[in-house]
Amino acid sequence: MGKITRKHRRLTMKKKPAAHKWLPAKTDEDLEFAQMVPAYGFVVDVLYINPLAHGGYTYKPVMFKKGNDVILNSPWDDTEDVWVGRICQVRTSPDQSKTLVKVRWYWSRNDINKQFKSFNPSQCAPFERILSDHYDYVSPYSFQAVTHVHEYDESSLDPPALHPRDLFMRTNLALASLPMNKRALQVKFIRYANYSSAMPEQIQFQPPLGHDTCLCGLTYNPFPSGICFPPEEFAATHEPQDPMHFCPSLNLPPETRNLRLLANNPDEEVLFVDFGYFYEKEAHEGVMLTDMVTVHDALRMLNRSPEIIAHLPASLLAIAQSPIIRCAGAPAGFAIGNVADVVLARRFVYTAVLNRGDPRASAKLMELLVREQMRESVPFWTGIEESSCDVVAHLQELAEQLEDFGTLASPYEKYWDRRMEEYKGLVELFAGPAFKCPQCQG
Fold it and tell me: Which of 61-65, 94-98, 216-220, 255-259 shows the lowest per-residue confidence on average (mean pLDDT)?
């Protein structure tokens, strides 16, 4: 691992176009790289703006290593098409006089559109990236900074908190072709050195864009161009303001925010057993309409004391009874959605109901903790020693026992109060037409 000093302020390499070859082929670059010695990483003196330094710039050593997401020099610096890659391997010559880096490219939506005219770039955000199987061998002088490309799984109950200009990805680029036997072959997560000059007949993504968006499969763009750029930088666009596509349960109206929603357990995708009774809109004989039943009323009807949820902030209870939604370009994180908030809030409620109060104050948990303290306090001179296997087995047993208590974390009231104020500021988003998917009207 060596330290390499950048010799010029801007060294822009030329990014090779993908010379699409279907079958793998070893090139001179591949052979040269294979003969080099693997290295952990390398250090480059990168130029940074520093108004206090002579000339307004200063050098700062930056470590680049295998697995890093990186920004590389290009003519498109500071634009949505800035070059982003992932370091696959680092190798040096035996005498360490030369270092090469194998970089797998993240393609922007415009990169894809240049290669495949059938691709509609408006279905991706400006700073969204698609991890391709196209790579190059790159000189260390071309590296500009270490960055992070967030992985955004649309089906996740805890998606990353993304902002409009954050780099993120949700799919990989796969090329498909029709060989002589007419059977379509698909490349998944495989990097070939070269491709045949014939352009593939199809472009495929794994997973497909829109696969986890909605029942209708229509692709969702969380950050349209008008959101990512200020008005003075963004001229006219044909991109529509993408409505919310994350379909709720089809039998719940958009304005619903009550016990019926709280009865839906996102972790299990089934009704929470204690509140399942209240899921139907029209209550059972002799019982009021479900939409009018509060959580405290429901607990009394189940012969439970409302005190078992007294430790939960009112804002948390309100969010737990909110619909899970998202809308393109919405502020306060609602472009990605409120799924993480709602799911966590419901976990707190379910845990309190199942444990008949705050699980951290339950006698059962106290008994478990006391038993663990007694076990750990056994003096070493007693001669009682445990093997590593015994310790691991005990820890596994302890973990299983703690799972029975559900969420043991403490709800931070200030956070939930702040989020509730943001919810109130977006009341139109919760009840407005953007709640419906334009395709399936869910």
Answer: 255-259
Between 49 and 18, the higher pLDDT residue:
49
3-state helix/strand/coil string of the chain:
CCEEECCCCCCCCCCCCCCECCCCCCCHHHHHHHCCEECCEEEEEEEEECCCCHHHEEEEEEEEECCCEEEECCCCCCCCCCEEEEEEEEEECCCCCCEEEEEEEEECHHHHHHHCCCCCHHHCCCCEEEEEEEEEEECHHHEEEEECCEECCCCCCCCCCCCCCCCEEEEEEEEEECCCCCCCEECCCCCCCCECCCCCCEEEEECCCCCCCCCCCCCCCCCCHHHHCCCCCCCCCCCCCCCCCCCCCCCCCCCCCCHHHHCEECCCCEECCCCHHHCCCCCCCCCCCHHHCCHHHHHHHCCCCHHHHCCCCHHHHHHHCCCCCCCCCCCCCCCCCCHHHHHHHHHHHHHHHHCCCCHHHCHHHHHHHHHHHHHHCCCHHHCCCCCHHHHHHHHHHHHHHHHCCCCCCCCCHHHHHHHHHHHHHCHHHHHCHHHCCCCCCC
Q: Report yes or no on whether pTM surpasses 0.85.
A: no
